[in-house]
Specification:
291 residues; mainly alpha; 11 helices; 0% strand; globular
């Protein structure tokens, strides 16, 4: 009697090792593709109410004060301080713009800080860093989006303030867009506000606390300048001239002032250097600190 040979059953194939799912926001290396990071930051930036409120405050305050202060100066021209009248004659464009930008720039400072510091306070920074593990592209994308929007809004505010202030001033000092240095000053205001926003963003990334960062930036923008002027001799003049915002504001003047130690583009270069150093420090700290 013969028995049929039985074939042992084939063992089931071992399951293939699981591979991590590739996120639509990441490339093969696991790092987010930069254009997608920019798109992510743009979505966050435009959907936050503080963005609209801050830019609205910049527009209203700058245009309103430029119109009001210019009108008051023209109305009281005969009793106006001689230095103020001389400033209008020497640099009517810069004087009109500085009337509103001086206070309106605070809105940009606050917004620049909140762009990143608010993510730390709400815990959203963890989700951002999870999507962009390398971290530095996230900071670069955030700065790029904020800088681009701020520059556009800054130019709207700059040309708007000039369009309002120049006709009011026409009876005392005539100024037009074709005058020497006027166009450069108008573009310069947008460049200044853009760099100021990046300066504030860098401070916010370093301090990571909204209130503390706002205090630090306000000290730089408002407090240090008059204190530097109290220093004796040429030391006070040089320290004052090389402060970030004091140097940066020169690019918004159509003519260099008699007491300015730096030309408009030299001053803006100093401001860019300050901002670059802070951004590099912010990026270095972002990669080495826990969220």
């Amino acid at each position: 009697m013969t028995t049929a040979a039985t074939t042992p059953p084939t063992p089931p194939a071992a399951p293939a090792p699981a591979t991590p799912a590739e996120s639509p926001n990441t490339g093969p290396s696991g790092f987010a593709a930069f254009p997608r990071v920019v798109a992510m930051e743009w979505t966050k930036f435009r959907t936050v109410r503080s963005t609209v409120y801050s830019f609205l405050a910049l527009v209203i305050v700058t245009l309103g004060l430029a119109a009001l202060i210019t009108w008051l100066s023209v109305s009281s021209w005969d009793t106006l301080d001689a230095d103020r009248r001389a400033a209008y004659h020497r640099d009517a464009t810069g004087t009109i713009l500085s009337s509103g930008i001086g206070l309106g720039q605070v809105a940009i400072c606050v917004l620049g800080i909140m762009v990143i510091a608010s993510e730390y306070s709400t815990g959203m920074i963890r989700a951002s860093l999870l999507a962009v593990p390398k971290r530095t592209p996230m900071l670069a994308a955030k700065g790029l989006v904020f800088a681009a929007v701020t520059f556009v809004i800054g130019e709207i505010v700059s040309f708007g303030a000039f369009a309002i202030g120049a006709p009011i001033l026409r009876s005392k000092v005539r100024v037009s867009l074709g005058d020497h240095g006027v166009l450069r000053a108008l573009i310069g205001v947008g460049l200044y506000l853009m760099m100021l926003g990046l300066f504030a963003l860098a401070v916010g990334a370093i301090i990571r606390h909204t209130a503390g960062a706002i205090i630090a930036v306000i000290v730089f923008v408002v407090v240090l300048a008059p204190l530097a002027q109290l220093l004796p001799g040429s030391l006070g003049k040089h320290v004052h001239a090389y402060l970030p915002t004091e140097a940066g504001q020169l690019v918004g003047q159509s003519a260099q002032g008699p007491k300015d130690l730096l030309s408009p583009w030299q001053g803006y270069g100093v401001f860019c250097l300050w901002t670059a150093v802070l951004l590099l420090a912010a990026g270095w700290l972002l990669k080495r600190r826990d969220a």
